[in-house]
Amino acid sequence: MLTAQEKLVQLEALLGDMKRVCIGYSGGVDSTFLAKVATNVLGEDALCIIAVSESYPEHERYEAEQFAAELGLHTLTVNTHEIDNPDYRRNDSMRCYHCKKEMVSHLKAIAAERRIPHILIGTNYDDLGDYRPGQQAAKEEGVRSPLVEVEMTKDDIRILSKEMNIPTWNKPSFACLSSRVPYGQAITPEILGKIDRAESLLREYGLSQFRVRHHDNLARIEVLPEEMTKVLDQGAAITSALKEMGYAYVTLDLVGYRTGSMNEVLHQIQAPARR
């Protein structure tokens, strides 16, 4: 098994062979690492695209721009419109597929205009084990995942990011705001804005990892088990603020934060009805 450093050498060689690349850059751990390595290897021939939409938290956009300036990335911001697609708004188990298709369409247009031969995203090797229909969409469109190609895991990326002084090395995992809405409930700009405001509120309490899952008029808060006390200590203030935002009920998930918790019910949705 290769070390993280050996995988980095492979990644640098792979990117060097590509000559010019266009990267989907969100400011998350993986895409920031890929963007920085590509910039180190290719300089201005690594163009990092920030895709902005209603499902992209305002805080994440601010951090992405901040990290890009700090790391010397060459960025371009585009507005995507996945929410205009009824297949996306329907919010079934293929929502991420339609979202990725929309984002990639913009990357391909930019790449074609600038004659950039390769479009890259920051999927890592660990992501292959999760339910991610967006990966299927990217593959169909010819998008490459260099971190997967060199079998770089999330741990590898965090280790190398720390060594390279990339500020996202210990950044919590993040996903689009639509991932807070149960499958089958339609996505609207109003719902996404509400979730964004709710999570901005929780961020003020210094939580390291959290989600506000939106269940109609109920807000289900997920935090790390060791930080539940922090939420409970401020329970009255948090509940009051979330009710002002329009939630009738506020609950703390006793299982705690976990990625893709909305996927836990997919088998129920996809299973045939019993008579």
Description:
The chain has 275 residues and is an alpha/beta fold. It has twelve helices and seven strands. The chain has helices at residues 4-18, 29-42, 58-71, 86-89, 95-114, 133-140, 146-149, 154-163, 189-203, 228-233, 235-244, 266-270; strands at residues 21-24, 46-52, 74-79, 118-120, 210-215, 218-223, 249-252. Helix 1 crosses helix 2, helix 1 (4-18) crosses helix 8 and helix 5 (95-114) runs parallel beside helix 6 (133-140). The longest helix is centred in the middle third of the chain and has 20 residues, at 95-114. The N and C termini lie far apart (50 Å). 37% of the residues are buried.
How much helix is in the residues? 40-55%
Q: How many strands, which pairing sense, and closed or not: the largest β-sheet?
A: 4 strands, parallel
Q: Calculate Rg over CA atoms.
A: 19 Å
Give the DSSP E fraction (strand runs of 2 or more residues): 5-15%
Tell how many strands the DSSP assignment holds: 7
Unreliable stretches (pLDDT < 50, length at least 5) are 269-275
Shape descriptor? globular
Structural class: alpha/beta
Distance between the termini: 50 Å
In spatial order, strands of the major sheet run 3-2-1-4
Mean pLDDT: 92
Number of helices: 12
Secondary-structure element string: HEHEHEHHEHHHHEEHHEH
